[in-house]
Amino acid sequence: MKSHTEYLTFNLPDRMGFLNITPQVEEVLRRSGIREGLVLANAMHITASVFINDDEPGLHHDYARWLERLAPFDPSPTTYHHNRTGEDNADAHMKRQVMGREVVVAVTNGTLDFGPWEQIFYGEFDGRRPKRVLIKVIGE
Amino acid sequence: MKSHTEYLTFNLPDRMGFLNITPQVEEVLRRSGIREGLVLANAMHITASVFINDDEPGLHHDYARWLERLAPFDPSPTTYHHNRTGEDNADAHMKRQVMGREVVVAVTNGTLDFGPWEQIFYGEFDGRRPKRVLIKVIGE
Amino acid sequence: MKSHTEYLTFNLPDRMGFLNITPQVEEVLRRSGIREGLVLANAMHITASVFINDDEPGLHHDYARWLERLAPFDPSPTTYHHNRTGEDNADAHMKRQVMGREVVVAVTNGTLDFGPWEQIFYGEFDGRRPKRVLIKVIGE
User: Sorted alphabetically, which NCBIfam families does this protein's record hold (chains A, B, C) (predicted)?
Assistant: First the structure.
């Protein structure tokens, strides 16, 4: 079994945002030389996500509005106890749980084995600073 | 390390529905000949899920009602921007994020290493058309 | 490829609760002798979660309140059909879907390859009884 690990860094300009990182994951896979196996891609920060969905700006607008409704931003210490620690990002920890930490993708014949619309996104819920994503490929 | 990949196709008669696919995943595992390792099962479409929970019709009724409350179907272009593209399924992209894209299951001694009630489901949120699920087994 | 499997048992004193199980997962990894690969950690029960987030009591308080808002406990048979079976835990099946069943973590150089704040939690939504978590390490 071979394995290959890389770390990508993203710095999104807004508090919440979605970035298609499929090309970067494909490059890591190519560099790994692995043809059959699995890729793990996960946010290394707990207010960010890696998820798979559609690369359509209207949908991303909808995701942002929907997540804000499910877990509203509120920096006051009364709504979220986490924000009594000096943080203001309790909502971001919830948004990240809805969207997920990680994806595991099949590698078949040297490519990401995807359906027609699957793309990998970095989801940021407390941005404006650099954060890392881990990519690990295992297989043969 | 060995690997084995198969694609299953499901066509659910309703817009939303849940199908127990554990027997099909077990057959793929048997055909793989792998005794120790991991199985990845993921929806290849972005308005569908693969998840693990209970095979109880009342619970599936509850899931459907709950997901409809969290992310209501609304084909109009005013509620969801995604539905300005000619699509009507923005809600399905949200329901899928709540239920998840994929599961990773341990393979131990040639079987899915499950607790007493764990069953694998295909979750459909924009059905009435064929969609694929990828099953990949890696191990020895 | 090597593999190593262990089962941990947890019995939380309350209906809902969160327990940091990172030290136990690290011990399993150490016993496996695996230096490069993946760890799967999953709840074997369908009203519990394994997830990765912050070890901060205020946040856990917020998670509990937020999940109660998204999927309220209601033992009556009228709100949730699942509770017509004699169960009272339909809400717990929903809370578990939001928080997830499993995590897959990279093993690099013999350690869990984590960002600065990542910790693994057992999330319980129908507690006061023993439940199992599966840890499987694969790699070299």
Answer: TIGR00149_YjbQ
